[in-house]
What does this fold into?
Amino acid sequence: MPKSDLKTPSAPALERGLLLLEMLAESSRGLTISELVRKAKLPKSSIHCLILTLERNGYLQQCSRTHRFRFAAKMFSLADQALTRMEIRQLAAPYLYDLMRQTKLTVHLAVMEHDQIVLIEKVEPPGMLKIASWIGRRMDINCTGVGKALIANLGDEEIDRLIKEHGLPRHNENTIRSSKALKIQLAEIRRLKFAVDDEEDEIGLRCIGTPIFDRRGKALAAISICGTVSHITANNLSALAQQLVSTASEISQNLGADTAVLQTCNVTAGNTVLRQEIKPC
It folds into this structure.
């Protein structure tokens, strides 16, 4: 931690809340308000307020019989997300670097979080035009290679919910704005095993994305290669897609995915999947 940060005061309420969570983590049976007051040596009113806040936000639950508080499902979900991110970033890192060296393109690793696509890793080739992306960036589901690759593996009801609740935000004239057109493209993505962002998020850039599967066959992340329209063309799309899908398959196998799920992509050099080469839906 930088020395300058040591001078910035901590938030007392947050420190107290974290202390309560640590105490609950050490108890297998959970703790009552009275027990937390004795252990934390804090006013009962303060503890009650903190516990109520954590409960209302889904991090704690109270047993109606014993009145003890325990971690709720949201706490375990949060921990699972953090562990999954750490595991997949560490596991995928060497593959991402190899893919960058093979393609000379920027490589992204992303997950879906709260209905948005979040970048959790980025590997850039030296000397290439820098892509305006960063770790932690949140993106829409309908206009990125990783986004479309991830939602293509969801059920129809879940896709409909995402569209209904979040819409299909327009980034430029190439962005898919019709749910019918998006669903047609998602069906094609499932067939090909990869998705293309053809200047749909940002003019002048193309990305190819494909999912990473876990041992349950769930698409838990996606990787993509990204470059300018002169870097990714109709002539090299096939080879780039093959390299991308092959890399994702290797990562998925290391996560325990069933090899039956990990088929090679169906693209050939003659496939017309770039926007200017296909008729609009």
Residues 80-277 form a domain with the Beta-Lactamase fold (CATH 3.30.450.40).
